[in-house]
């Protein structure tokens, strides 16, 4: 089977669903955190977003041959290079699409994972980012699943590749 990348906005459940889809999964953010030896929010504070994006691209390119299921960070589609990589690779790209306010509530409630992109912005600013990114997720996705009001188990069942 082709490798499968999960994409979508923060809080859509990419990391949660990847773990349930197969034992052979990897989360790009987890790989990056292992590389940098600190949390993503500390890294943003010390080195800035641009440096994080460089690491993200490098990590994206290294995993498609080593794992079956790959959860990405919500900003993966911001880079043209990353979008091109996902389009050119012989892989499935599953877009987990959800209602903004439901995702926003999850992001705020998730104290285990502080997302610097979200905490530094108002709801309105983040909604603009959500709308902008929605077109980019659509442009690279090979499959699209609505996750609003579904349990992780229901979403896993829907991902039939
Ligand atoms: N389908 C779901 N229903 C309810 N809560 C969910 C669902 N998917 C994920 N969550 C919760 O939402 C938060 C963000 O999930 P996560 O998998 O980290 O999303 P992402 O990786 O897309 O940012 C976590 O607290 C997780 O437990
Ligand atoms: O949307 C973004 O720009 C980001 C999303 C995060 O991943 P999740 O989508 O898994 O929360 C993480 O990569 C980083 O905080 C930046
Ligand atoms: Mg995640």
TrEMBL record:
Pfam families reported for this sequence: SKI
Pathway listed: Metabolic intermediate biosynthesis; chorismate biosynthesis; chorismate from D-erythrose 4-phosphate and phosphoenolpyruvate: step 5/7
Cofactor annotation: Mg(2+)
Enzyme Commission number: 2.7.1.71
GO cellular component: cytosol
Catalysed transformations (reactions): shikimate + ATP = 3-phosphoshikimate + ADP + H(+)
Location in the cell: Cytoplasm
Binding site for substrate: 29, 53, 74, 133
GO BP, sorted A to Z: amino acid biosynthetic process; aromatic amino acid family biosynthetic process; chorismate biosynthetic process
Entries under PROSITE patterns matching the protein: SHIKIMATE_KINASE
Any one GO MF annotation of this record: magnesium ion binding
Main localization category: cytoplasm
Annotated positions binding Mg(2+): 15
Residues the record lists as binding ATP: 11-16, 115
Family according to the record: Belongs to the shikimate kinase family.
Function: Catalyzes the specific phosphorylation of the 3-hydroxyl group of shikimic acid using ATP as a cosubstrate.
Subunit structure, interactors included: Monomer.
Identification of the protein by name: Shikimate kinase
Species whose genome carries this gene: Pseudolactococcus plantarum
Source organism phylogeny: Bacteria, Bacillati, Bacillota, Bacilli, Lactobacillales
């Amino acid at each position: 089977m082709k490798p499968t990348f999960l994409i979508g906005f923060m809080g859509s459940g990419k990391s949660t669903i990847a773990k349930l889809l197969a034992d052979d999964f990897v989360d790009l953010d987890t790989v990056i955190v292992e590389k940098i030896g600190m949390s993503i929010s500390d890294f943003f504070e010390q080195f800035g977003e641009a440096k994080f994006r460089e690491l993200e691209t490098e990590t994206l390119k290294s995993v498609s041959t080593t794992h079956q299921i790959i959860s990405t960070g919500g900003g993966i589609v911001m880079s043209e290079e990353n979008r091109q990589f996902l389009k050119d690779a012989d892989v499935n790209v599953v877009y987990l699409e959800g209602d903004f306010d439901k995702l926003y509530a999850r992001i705020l409630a998730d104290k285990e994972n502080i997302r610097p992109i979200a905490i530094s912005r108002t709801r309105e600013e983040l909604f603009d980012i959500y709308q902008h990114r929605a077109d980019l997720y659509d442009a690279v996705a090979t499959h699209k699943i609505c996750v609003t009001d579904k349990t992780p188990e229901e979403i896993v069942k829907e991902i039939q590749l």
